[in-house]
């Protein structure tokens, strides 16, 4: 394509593309953008005086947590703010023209043509009633005036370009017939169709599995490079930003707090908020810390221009000046800017670390009888034995012959992607779903059988905290009422006593006791998740299943909740089954890990062992897909997995065979892989001999090597 | 899709068999027996007995049912006692008239109701929306016969523009035929329009908030394409179902409206049969009405599946 005077190195992206002899004019230049939303309770300031610019061929990350206004900015560029949203002031210059001065029809003509977008959730971004090909063709027909036949040819080219091997079939398919990764590729193909100058990527991989995400990010990086595309990359994920963006703008509370080249911002953050954000990230390479540094408090909502530093209420370095003066953006060299007057003074100060790096406590209690014992667990969904032959179904195997144990006080992590059966395992452990085969023993008693007999005593000793903190609380009940319910069910105490218990539980999870009278919508996401945890603790359980319990939370809040869970474990000796797709979170909190794929256990063992070779091929791919920051060491060669086509499992061979990059051949399809033990309960299920597996280089070479065996 | 259709047809047949048994038993339990009705009020018990034997009414119920059901399967619905004619042609005629009413009324309802619903959704919160909502409430709150009476009074009695009731076959001229249809159709439309408009409005509002609509806009599609191609197709799913069920309802006869306008459709036929205690006619009419209703439901489900590729394809692999 173009021979730009700069080259893009995907790993690690260092600096803004070096300008040619004279500095290139920015492709997108946003100045003083202020956006507010009219709500029932008055107007809320979503974005205040935001400015940044993107050079031709540059990918800029717009980073922030929920409420930072990052998506609002992206939508304002597209003129898709939606109901109530209004740009109050500012300029959005695209190729030198202020988009705000254009008529709506002119802006629409730009959309999908020279400014194209890809949004977060591929599963809902495609129209279920139209074929994929037709949807990709639409902008081509509209903007480029192609005939439907010409467009169809171009659609197949585009699908080929985004790495779809069977473009004709995919073009004719309806969205639900495609996997999430393929759907996102189709959306990217749509965006590329009219050869746009600027891509707006709003969390384009957030809804995808890690291994799929890695491939989509690589694809995007490659496309931006080959097409000389500029992109506004909206994300909450610093690792992803590190992988694809040359520069970063950090938003907090609708205000730009820091901007600069990615490498500098992520390795030497200048603004306290950026420091906190990076420190709070659970990391695989970091020394295992008892607690994560966290950012206390939540984002305040603004109704007018900020009167003080927006971050002051949560900043550990805040002083009186910070609270009385709004902060100006201070420009420094190489495109860097910081909105903090203390930035220089704090240059060498890092975010306060509350937990230290000491191991969390002594060795696990001496191995007595395990608390939970699972043997040959199987769960098949949707099997049906109808009298009508065409209605008979074999069902899908969600969990296939899984056995493991959990000791008292132990945290067992379960890592896997969607469809791995990890949630089903958790539900089976709590007797929330009837196993199709196998046994689940809780403290020696057959849990599902007891529940079948109507005996609920074990239910009190084993509780669940799951992902969607909003959906799991009844909006019409106060926090106190919601928390009392398990106590009432268990017949504990009178009303007065229960109120005291609720207050005690709220204090224990770090909330004021007065929260008992609040309704869920009055709480932030992190607070709601604390309430959920408090409710789970109401019956003094010994065992808690955390099913993606921190996945929906912002990094700073996630660190808070992880610390809370770790604290409760230490104080009360709780055991957890910690289910997540995020291997970094597991590396932080778990003692042992199960890596699951297609309903089977690929690898299990102490965390320190699983993170080091020998790896199961799936674990290795998973680890290599984890986005990382510069200080975690350079990215390893990524192991790219095919987008999964068929639901795995239940066919006799290795569940991973359909996507395995190291597949040996027919033996993998036909014979269940042998389970081989390396040492200390580290087991790998694969046909490849352990010695061969051990030859691979570690994915995280910086992982402290010595204590591996000790854990 | 084929397997799905097959399954549904099988269920339909099953439902109809059960229905026929129920209809048969219920009508048997109705007061008065056929034989004495045929024989007349003053006939001697012997005569009644003779008629009973001749009609097979002295046989066990199961045999009687069997004979009735076998007749139906051969297209023989029996004879009307009061009209003293075979039932099938009478029924078919009434059904055809109800069909005309249903097709005309529902076409109007579909076009106007969906149009208004879309308009209200697109202009949500604005004056147009409030007007549509207001009229909808009126349409739902006011009972259907009220409109019928108002219309008869205004257009028929005062202005004398339209016939207030009755029916003339098409053969006697298209204009008089159409004139007789106007008032019942308008009443039906007023009765059904509000629900369709409101349903379309609410599902349209939901769909307009989906990501794929947002993405269509991000592709630079003009609003007309966004609304018609992207939103409406998905928003219509629930509306289609309700329309099909309404169709079944009208086909089965809307007694109130048919009575007020003396429109000789299924509703009036059933009423006539019940008033005159014409058991075979009652049985046949109810059976046909139920079949029409079930069929309309089936068509609704099939349409739903057909419009929704997720179901269409799911069925293929099932
Ligand atoms: S201005 Fe003050 S409160 Fe704001 S980030 Fe800097 S040090 Fe913290
Ligand atoms: S058994 Fe075969 S397919 Fe499965 S992980 Fe090992 S090499 Fe890959």
Automatic annotation (TrEMBL), chain A:
<keyword id="KW-0067">ATP-binding</keyword>
<dbReference type="InterPro" id="IPR003593">
    <property type="entry name" value="AAA+_ATPase"/>
</dbReference>
<keyword id="KW-0813">Transport</keyword>
<dbReference type="InterPro" id="IPR027417">
    <property type="entry name" value="P-loop_NTPase"/>
</dbReference>
<dbReference type="InterPro" id="IPR050388">
    <property type="entry name" value="ABC_Ni/Peptide_Import"/>
</dbReference>
<dbReference type="Pfam" id="PF08352">
    <property type="entry name" value="oligo_HPY"/>
</dbReference>
<feature type="domain" description="ABC transporter">
    <location>
        <begin position="30"/>
        <end position="278"/>
    </location>
</feature>
<dbReference type="InterPro" id="IPR017871">
    <property type="entry name" value="ABC_transporter-like_CS"/>
</dbReference>
<dbReference type="Pfam" id="PF00005">
    <property type="entry name" value="ABC_tran"/>
</dbReference>
<dbReference type="GO" id="GO:0005524">
    <property type="term" value="F:ATP binding"/>
</dbReference>
<keyword id="KW-0472">Membrane</keyword>
<dbReference type="InterPro" id="IPR003439">
    <property type="entry name" value="ABC_transporter-like_ATP-bd"/>
</dbReference>
<protein>
    <submittedName>
        <fullName>Peptide/nickel transport system ATP-binding protein</fullName>
    </submittedName>
</protein>
<feature type="domain" description="ABC transporter">
    <location>
        <begin position="372"/>
        <end position="623"/>
    </location>
</feature>
<keyword id="KW-1003">Cell membrane</keyword>
<keyword id="KW-0547">Nucleotide-binding</keyword>
<comment type="similarity">
    <text>Belongs to the ABC transporter superfamily.</text>
</comment>
<dbReference type="InterPro" id="IPR013563">
    <property type="entry name" value="Oligopep_ABC_C"/>
</dbReference>
From TrEMBL, chain B:
<feature type="transmembrane region" description="Helical">
    <location>
        <begin position="134"/>
        <end position="155"/>
    </location>
</feature>
<dbReference type="InterPro" id="IPR045621">
    <property type="entry name" value="BPD_transp_1_N"/>
</dbReference>
<dbReference type="InterPro" id="IPR000515">
    <property type="entry name" value="MetI-like"/>
</dbReference>
<keyword id="KW-0813">Transport</keyword>
<dbReference type="Pfam" id="PF00528">
    <property type="entry name" value="BPD_transp_1"/>
</dbReference>
<dbReference type="InterPro" id="IPR035906">
    <property type="entry name" value="MetI-like_sf"/>
</dbReference>
<feature type="transmembrane region" description="Helical">
    <location>
        <begin position="9"/>
        <end position="27"/>
    </location>
</feature>
<keyword id="KW-1003">Cell membrane</keyword>
<feature type="transmembrane region" description="Helical">
    <location>
        <begin position="99"/>
        <end position="122"/>
    </location>
</feature>
<comment type="similarity">
    <text>Belongs to the binding-protein-dependent transport system permease family.</text>
</comment>
<dbReference type="Pfam" id="PF19300">
    <property type="entry name" value="BPD_transp_1_N"/>
</dbReference>
<feature type="transmembrane region" description="Helical">
    <location>
        <begin position="235"/>
        <end position="261"/>
    </location>
</feature>
<keyword id="KW-0472">Membrane</keyword>
<feature type="transmembrane region" description="Helical">
    <location>
        <begin position="175"/>
        <end position="194"/>
    </location>
</feature>
<keyword id="KW-0812">Transmembrane</keyword>
<keyword id="KW-1133">Transmembrane helix</keyword>
<protein>
    <submittedName>
        <fullName>Peptide/nickel transport system permease protein</fullName>
    </submittedName>
</protein>
<feature type="transmembrane region" description="Helical">
    <location>
        <begin position="281"/>
        <end position="307"/>
    </location>
</feature>
<feature type="domain" description="ABC transmembrane type-1">
    <location>
        <begin position="95"/>
        <end position="304"/>
    </location>
</feature>
């Amino acid at each position: 394509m173009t021979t730009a005077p700069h080259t893009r190195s995907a790993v690690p992206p260092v600096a803004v593309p070096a300008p040619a002899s004279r500095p290139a004019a920015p492709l997108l230049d946003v100045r003083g953008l202020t956006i507010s939303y009219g709500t029932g309770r008055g107007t809320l300031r979503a974005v205040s005086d935001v400015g940044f610019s993107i050079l031709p061929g540059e990918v800029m990350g717009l980073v922030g947590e929920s409420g930072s206004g990052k998506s609002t900015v992206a939508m304002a560029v597209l003129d898709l703010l939606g109901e109530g949203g209004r740009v109050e002031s500012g300029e959005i210059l695209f190729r030198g023209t202020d988009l705000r001065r254009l008529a709506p029809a002119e802006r629409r003509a730009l959309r999908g043509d020279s400014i194209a977008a890809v949004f977060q959730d591929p599963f809902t971004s495609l129209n279920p009633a139209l074929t994929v090909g037709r949807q990709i063709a639409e902008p081509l027909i509209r903007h480029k005036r192609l005939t439907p036949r010409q467009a169809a040819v171009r659609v197949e080219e585009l699908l080929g370009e985004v790495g779809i091997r069977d473009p004709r079939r995919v073009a004719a398919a309806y969205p639900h017939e495609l996997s999430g990764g393929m759907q996102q590729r189709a959306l990217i193909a749509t965006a590329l169709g009219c050869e746009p100058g600027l891509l707006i990527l709003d969390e384009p991989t957030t809804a995808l599995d890690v291994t799929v995400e890695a491939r989509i990010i690589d694809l995007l990086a490659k496309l931006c490079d080959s097409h000389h595309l500029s992109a506004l990359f909206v994300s909450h994920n610093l690792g992803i930003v590190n992988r694809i963006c040359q520069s970063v703008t950090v938003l907090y509370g609708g205000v730009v707090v820091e901007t600069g080249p990615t490498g500098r911002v992520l390795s030497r953050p200048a603004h306290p908020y950026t420091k906190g954000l990076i420190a709070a990230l659970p990391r695989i390479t970091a020394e295992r810390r008892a607690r994560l540094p966290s950012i206390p408090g939540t984002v305040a909502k603004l109704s007018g221009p900020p009167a003080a530093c927006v971050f002051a209420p949560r900043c550990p370095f805040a002083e009186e000046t910070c609270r009385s003066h709004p902060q100006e953006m201070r420009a420094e060299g190489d495109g860097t800017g910081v909105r903090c007057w203390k930035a220089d003074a704090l240059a060498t100060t890092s975010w306060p670390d509350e937990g230290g790096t000491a191991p969390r406590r002594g060795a696990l209690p001496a191995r007595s009888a395990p608390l939970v014992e699972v043997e040959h667990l199987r769960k098949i969904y949707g099997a049906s034995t109808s009298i009508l032959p065409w209605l008979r179904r074999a069902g899908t195997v969600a969990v296939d012959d899984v056995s493991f144990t959990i000791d008292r006080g132990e945290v067992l992590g379960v890592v896997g992607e969607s469809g791995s059966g990890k949630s089903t395992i958790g539900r089976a452990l709590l007797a929330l779903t009837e196993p199709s085969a196998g046994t689940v023993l809780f403290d020696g008693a057959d849990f599902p059988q007891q529940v079948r007999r109507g005996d609920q005593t074990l239910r009190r000793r084993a509780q669940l905290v799951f992902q969607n903190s909003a959906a799991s609380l009844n909006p019409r009940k106060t926090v106190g009422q919601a928390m009392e319910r398990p106590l009432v069910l268990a017949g504990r105490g009178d009303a007065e006593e229960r109120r005291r218990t609720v207050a005690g539980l709220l204090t224990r999870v770090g909330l004021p006791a007065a929260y008992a009278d609040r309704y869920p919508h009055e709480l932030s996401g992190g607070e709601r998740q604390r309430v959920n945890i408090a409710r789970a603790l109401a019956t003094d359980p010994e065992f808690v299943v955390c099913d993606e319990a921190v996945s929906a939370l912002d990094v700073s809040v996630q660190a808070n909740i992880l610390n809370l869970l770790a604290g409760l474990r230490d104080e009360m000796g709780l055991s957890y089954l910690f289910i997540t797709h995020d291997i970094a979170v597991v590396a932080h909190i778990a003692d042992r890990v199960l890596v699951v794929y297609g309903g089977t256990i690929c690898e299990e063992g102490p965390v320190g062992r699983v993170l080091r070779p020998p790896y199961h091929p799936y674990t290795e791919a998973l680890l290599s897909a984890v986005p990382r920051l510069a200080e975690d060491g350079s990215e390893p060669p990524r192991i790219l997995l095919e987008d999964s086509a068929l639901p795995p499992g239940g066919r006799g061979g290795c569940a991973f065979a359909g996507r395995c990059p190291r597949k040996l051949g027919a033996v993998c399809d036909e014979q269940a892989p042998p389970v081989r033990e390396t040492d200390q309960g580290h087991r790998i299920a694969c046909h490849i001999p352990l010695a061969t597996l051990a030859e691979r280089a570690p994915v995280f070479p910086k992982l402290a090597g010595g204590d591996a065996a000790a854990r | 899709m084929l397997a799905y259709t097959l399954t549904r047809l099988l269920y339909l047949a099953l439902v109809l068999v059960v229905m026929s048994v129920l209809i048969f038993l219920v009508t048997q339990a109705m007061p008065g027996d056929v034989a004495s009705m045929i024989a007349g009020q003053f006939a001697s018990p012997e005569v009644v007995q003779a008629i009973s034997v001749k009609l097979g009414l002295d046989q066990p119920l199961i045999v009687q049912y069997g004979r009735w059901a076998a007749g139906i399967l051969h297209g023989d619905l029996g004879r009307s006692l009061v009209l003293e004619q075979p039932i099938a042609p009478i029924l078919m005629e009434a059904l055809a008239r109800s069909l005309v009413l249903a097709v005309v009324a529902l076409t109007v309802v579909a076009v106007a109701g969906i149009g208004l619903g879309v308009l209200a959704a697109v202009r949500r919160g604005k004056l147009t929306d409030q007007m549509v909502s207001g009229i909808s409430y009126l349409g739902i709150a006011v009972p259907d016969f009220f409109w019928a009476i108002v219309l008869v009074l205004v257009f028929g009695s005062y202005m004398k523009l339209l016939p207030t009731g009755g029916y003339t076959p098409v053969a006697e001229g298209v204009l008089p035929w159409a004139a007789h249809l106007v008032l019942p159709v308008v009443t039906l439309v007023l009765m059904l329009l509000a629900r369709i408009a409101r349903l379309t409005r609410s599902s349209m509002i939901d769909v307009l908030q989906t990501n794929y609509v947002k993405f269509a806009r991000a592709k630079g599609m003009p609003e007309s394409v966004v609304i018609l191609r992207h939103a409406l197709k998905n928003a219509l799913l629930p509306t289609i179902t309700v329309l099909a069920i309404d169709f079944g309802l009208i086909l089965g006869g809307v007694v109130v409206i048919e009575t007020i306008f003396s429109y000789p459709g299924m509703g009036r036929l059933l009423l006539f049969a019940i008033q005159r205690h014409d058991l075979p006619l009652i049985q046949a009419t109810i059976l046909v009405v139920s079949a029409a209703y079930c069929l309309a439901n089936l068509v609704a489900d099939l349409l739903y599946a057909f419009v929704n590729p997720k179901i269409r394809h799911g069925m293929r692999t099932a």
